[in-house]
Hints:
Blueprint: H1 2-16, E1 27-31, H2 35-47, E2 51-55, H3 58-65, E3 71-74, H4 83-92, E4 101-105, H5 111-119, E5 124-127, H6 132-233, H7 240-267, H8 270-274, H9 277-292, E6 295-300, H10 309-330, E7 334-342, E8 345-352, H11 359-367, H12 373-384, E9 388-394, E10 397-405, H13 412-415
Parallel strand pairs: 1-2, 1-3, 3-4, 4-5, 6-7
Antiparallel strand pairs: 7-8, 8-10, 9-10
Helix pairs in contact: 1-6, 3-4, 6-7, 6-12, 9-10, 10-12
The structure holds adenosine-5'-diphosphate (ADP) and magnesium ion.
Amino acid sequence: MSNSIETKDSARWEAFSADPSGNSAIRILTVDDNEALRYSLARSLRDAGYQVVEAKTGAEALARAAELPDLITLDVNLPDMNGFQVCRRIKADPTTTHIPILHVSSTFVDPQSRVQGLEGGADAYLAEPVDRAELVATVGALLRLKKAETTARQQAQAAEKARLELAQLNATLEARVNERTAELRTANESLRELSARLLKMQDDERRRIARELHDSVGQLLAAISMNMAVVDKESEKLSPEAKKAFVENRSFVQQILQGIRTISHLLHPPLLDESGLPSALRWYVEEFSQRSGISVTLQFSPSFERLSSELETAVFRIVQECLGNIHRHSQSPTAEIRVTKSGDSVSLEVRDAGPGMPAEKQEQIKLGIRTGVGLRGMRERVAQLGGQLKIESDAGGTTVVATLPCTPSTPAAIEGVA
Ligand SMILES: Nc1ncnc2c1ncn2[C@@H]1O[C@H](COP(=O)(O)OP(=O)(O)O)[C@@H](O)[C@H]1O
Ligand SMILES: [Mg+2]
């Protein structure tokens, strides 16, 4: 009879320990002061493949717990201290708190004791006599739970580590982006400064050459012209060939004078400095109309006052470039120029009646790729003065609008340029 029970028990036990060899690395601490009970428990666990370490007292249990077994079976009624106390101390210690504790008691079998044990931190409670299969199954379940907990904790740690690494990477990336942005900003600023210097130098150089032409070559030609007047008075004394050559020379000198005057004025109209933008533009537009055959209208808003020399030069140069473009690219017979001062800004609008720019060209201009020097120069000039340039073009023609603040915030670096 007892034999058959034994066999039945073994079969049940087998079901719970399908892989006893997998348990061989698992160490269980079995604490019980009763030799027979401890032996029986340890035997059952060893049969299930576990390594078993034994302890007889609470103090011994605590010492062994420090060796970090994978699980502890803990008797409640110990000679030196109460098993619940042992459990509480193990669970209170951060190094041992994760060890599952299974109370196995032969004296404290009432529900109240079970509750007390579980509330003290134990993970399960079994009362003697303990069924072997139940014991092994409970131990298995507790170890599975511990393994799942460990896996979850490791996963959480790995996720936290990954999150930290990502945050660090992000911070590094952000720092690098900031660094590159700062570098780009500096490069842009120096480029802008350089182009401002170039524009200013170009304006100054044109003004200097215009003056030079007018003052030295022009003066010399004027002197030649006066000398010729002296010769002219006595021209009847010349032979017919000499007189013919003299008359021709007089005409050449006049033509050269006229040519130099035009070149000098195109380079830098003296009227721009002396009489201001309206007079200079009127003169320029008239000359342009005569040369190009394009009829140009020019309008200023009422009582247009003088602007800063920078602004007047900018507006004049933009008009020059726009009219040049209209002549070269637009096929328009007409052009309209409107200069309006309102409040703190001045707006320049140059419109033609040509067939407009091809869409592809407009796209390139918008993206700033492969546009000519003219439009870029205009944009740069306008940007330097803190203004805006808009170019609109359709089948009805092309319109360039430049809006410039009247108190331009000229970058300090540009002011020093001689
Ligand atoms: N008024 C206009 N009508 C038609 N096309 C124009 C006009 N102004 C400019 N464009 C187009 O824009 C291009 C760029 O002009 P721009 O920068 O002044 O350079 P460039 O005059 O040296 O070609 C021109 O080549 C031309 O195709
Ligand atoms: Mg051009």
